[in-house]
Amino acid sequence: EPPWSSPKELALAAFMDTYLFRPHNSPVTGMMVLQNTEWYGIPPLAQLVIMAAETSLGDPRLGGTLARHNNFGCMRYNGGDSPWGSLSGGRVWAAGKDWYSFPSAQIGMVAWGRYLKVGAKGVYLPILKSAEPNWERFAAIYYGRGVAGFSAYVSRLNSIENRFRSMAAEHGVSF
Questions:
Q1: pLDDT at position 5, please?
Q2: 105-118 and 44-55 are packed helices; what angle lies between their axes, rounded to 10 degrees?
Q3: Which of 45, 68, 119, 163 has the fewest CB atoms lying closer than 10 Å?
């Protein structure tokens, strides 16, 4: 375990592994999420909410092609010259578009952390670091306000956040 892991962080990682990732057969671990928190400042709950909405927490079956290619946040392919693209193992075609493919779950999570920190000119990080993320503001950029299903996506993000907060409280951990 990393030297920055406190008992609270270890308990949170165990909670994520036991109640979120393992039931989805995800290759992602709670420590990967906490690593992104440490390195990039992305709060664990924000990462989990987006991953749940995008790739069913990295579930290889429910999360589809992108989850199987370790792209847990559904990052569109734009070449290898970005901080996250440099970690890419190439691209994968899905749903009529090119997406990043990463060689492992660990690298995919590092790339996604980098994207959330500096992608879209750094606009995501302040939204996600808020005690109560503004999911509508986040989704307007990440998903696209004019894209069909926008309101349903925002509702889904809010619902997932509430569900994860409740689950954590039931198991004696907090985000």
A1: 79
A2: 110
A3: 163
| pLDDT, position 4 | 64
Three-class DSSP category at 28: coil
Q: How far apart are the first and last CA of the chain?
A: 19
Model confidence pLDDT, tens digit, residues 8-29 = 999 999 999 999 999 999 999 9
What 3-state class would DSSP assign to 76?
strand
Task: Kindly state the DSSP code that residue 84 receives in the 8-state scheme.
Answer: T
43's tokens:
């709060």
The gap from C-alpha 94 to its chain's centroid, in whole angstroms, comes to 19
Q: To which H or E segment does residue 101 belong?
A: strand 97-101
Backbone angles phi, psi at 149, to 5 degrees: 90, 10
Phi, psi of 9 (to 5 degrees): -65, -40
Q: Structure pTM?
A: 0.95
Which residue, 141, 98, 97, 110, is CA-closest to 42? Answer: 110
What single letter denotes the amino acid at residue 74? C
CB 47: neighbour CB atoms within 10 A?
A: 26
Instruction: Mark residue 54 as left, alpha or beta (left: phi above 0; alpha: psi -120 to 50; beta: remaining).
Output: alpha
